[in-house]
Structures are given as C-alpha cells and as structure tokens.
Design goal:
CATH topology: TIM Barrel
Distance between the termini: 13 Å
CATH class: Alpha Beta
Structural class: alpha/beta
CATH architecture: Alpha-Beta Barrel
Number of helices: 9
Strand content: 15-25%
Order of helices and strands: EHEEEEHHEHEHEHEHEHEH
Largest sheet: 8 strands, parallel, barrel
Oligomer: single chain
Number of domains: 1
C-alpha cells in the first residue's frame, strides 16, 4: 500500500504548515502529513518552511516573537497533537546556505528530546537534506525513523548512502525517478529495508506509476487527488 502524505498540509485550501491545514488534509483522507520544522532563538520548535519573517530570521527570534511575526505559526508539539495516529514526516531545516544555519545542529537534538518527552506516542519519520543532521538523530535515537531527502543526482547512489548509514527511508524528488531508475531504486531499497517516499507528486499519472512500482509513500500538494487515485484508505 502506498501512503498519501499531505505536503505542508492541505496547502491548496488553507495556509501551509498550519494546524488547520494539517487537520484538513487528514479529513480529506491523507494517511499523514509532511511538515518543516525550525528552531527559535529560545530553542523552541516551530513549523514553517522559510526562516525569514517580517521581524527577522526564525533562529534570531524567540517563539513569542516568531508567533507575533507569523500569526498562526504552530509549534511542532501542536502539530503532532493534531496528527496523533497518523504518520508525520518531520523535515528539519538546517543547511549551511539557509538563514539561521546552526553548525551545532541543536535542531536535531531538540527534535529527539521532544519525541522522547512525548513518550513515543508519535508515528514519525525525521528527514533532512542534511545527511549529518539525520545521522545525528539516528545516533541519539536509533528507534526514530530517519529519511534522506534528495532532489537531484543519482538516486541509486543516494540510496546507498542512506542504507550504509542505517537510515529508514530515501525521500527522492519525483523528477529523479524516471523510467530508467524507478524500478531499480524501489527494488534495491526494499531489499535493504529502506522505504521510498517520493515528493512532490501532484500528477495522476505519476501517482499511479509510483504506486504500481511499490513506493511506500507519496508526498503531495493535493491529498484529495491522491486519495481519489488510490481509493479509500483501509479501515
């Protein structure tokens, strides 16, 4: 079964990365959601894609200041509460060229700490384009599923890196999985015990070919479209 994960929630109907957008996506039949998490200056975890705000970078603001600058900005804990019982793909934002980059990678430590404080009630996969960040999560909490995000290059080599480091999933961009690579990547991944979760899939033809190839999940801006293509979720 291929799962449907709503990219930043039902972002075509409601503001992305908000509790309302995530709840709406689940109401539309998504099996789970994908979100972006960033660290504030006072080491709180908030859900937003871009670090820039009208008041400055998220990493330079306290959580109170960030919420004032971005009304409706949720904490990661609030989104996890709204998504209990569903899969949540937590993408950590901490790359050297991004605003607010933290070379000490406190974001990874804070995500692990929050998940542990919550007593393991959440079904999550923690992903990042930064391989060192998910390595850090895996080293600190091997019980937490981790996914390597990639958007270009050789998907087979990316899979090898993920598998060699013990990560649970590969998250390739849909454009990387053309006819020449899709079957090989899925077969090799599943042989290594690695899930394949593909982003961002908004075309019915892509949804069908990925499902038929056996990918584990698709991340989509249109959860209603994907749900219709795949049929009703299992009871």
């Amino acid at each position: 079964m291929t799962l449907v994960l709503a990219h930043r929630g039902a972002n075509r109907e409601l503001p992305e990365n908000t509790v309302a957008a995530f709840r709406r996506a689940l109401a539309l039949g998504a099996d789970g959601v994908e979100l972006d998490v960033q660290r504030t200056a006072d080491d709180q975890l908030v859900v937003c894609h871009d670090a820039a705000t009208p008041a400055g970078s998220i990493g330079e603001l306290t959580v109170e200041q960030a919420c004032a600058a971005l009304p409706g900005l949720p904490t990661l804990a609030e989104v996890l509460d709204a998504s209990l019982g569903r899969l949540v793909n937590v993408e950590m934002k901490n790359l050297p060229w991004q605003a607010g980059f933290d070379p000490d990678d406190r974001l990874s430590d804070l995500v692990v700490a929050l998940l542990r404080e919550r007593g393991g009630v959440d079904d999550v996969v923690v992903s990042s384009f930064n391989l060192e960040s998910i390595d850090r999560v895996r080293a600190a909490a091997p019980e937490v599923a981790t996914g390597f995000l990639v958007m270009g290059g050789d998907p087979v080599r990316a899979l090898e890196w993920a598998a060699e480091r013990g990560h649970s999933a590969l998250h390739p961009a849909v454009a990387m999985l053309d006819g020449a690579h899709l079957g090989e990547v899925v077969t090799r991944a599943h042989g290594a015990g690695v899930a394949v979760n593909v982003w961002t899939v908004n075309d019915v033809a892509d949804l069908i070919r990925l499902r038929d190839a056996g990918v584990n999940a698709v991340i989509t801006d249109d959860p209603a479209l994907a749900r219709a293509a795949y049929g009703a979720p299992p009871a």
